[in-house]
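Hi all, posting the design record for the shared folder.

TITLE: backbone redesign
STEP: 1 of 1
STRUCTURE INPUT:
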């Protein structure tokens, strides 16, 4: 009788610990899907240093299976005579890729990044790239 009670208590304690660990795990996919993101920094590794390669404001948004990148550009609109009639700032698509998240890793196309959360700023980094995402 005592052995059965001890077994039940120990299995309950173990499952409780597992549930606590699962609830403490950060749900990156929900976070990605809940917001639009601006890429505040984009670095590419050259040798032992990272070079900032972001030239225009870049943004990304996630769907359940793809990440889309856009950049902000000035777009000129012309009349029939070739004169500029209007200049607007527009978000222009510059790529869409499938992604897969597992724990603190995200695979975008053929690149695998480690995800870290720095007070609401998400950093995606691997040997070649570092992307810093801030909520838009």
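Okay, here is what came back for every position:
SEQUENCE:
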């Amino acid at each position: 009788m005592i052995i059965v009670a001890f077994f039940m208590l120990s299995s309950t304690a173990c499952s409780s610990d597992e549930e606590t660990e699962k609830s403490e795990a950060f749900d990156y996919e929900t976070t990605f899907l809940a917001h639009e993101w601006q890429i505040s920094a984009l670095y590419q590794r050259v040798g032992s240093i990272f070079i900032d390669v972001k030239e225009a404001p870049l943004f990304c948004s996630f769907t359940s299976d793809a990440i889309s990148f856009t950049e902000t550009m000035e777009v000129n609109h012309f009349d029939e005579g070739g004169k500029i009639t209007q200049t607007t700032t527009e978000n222009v698509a510059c790529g869409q890729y499938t992604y897969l998240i597992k724990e603190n890793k995200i695979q975008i196309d053929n690149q695998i990044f480690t995800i870290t959360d720095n007070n609401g700023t998400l950093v995606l980094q691997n040997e070649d790239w570092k992307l810093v995402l801030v909520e838009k």
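COMMENT: The chain has a mean pLDDT of 80.
Let me know if anyone wants the other runs.
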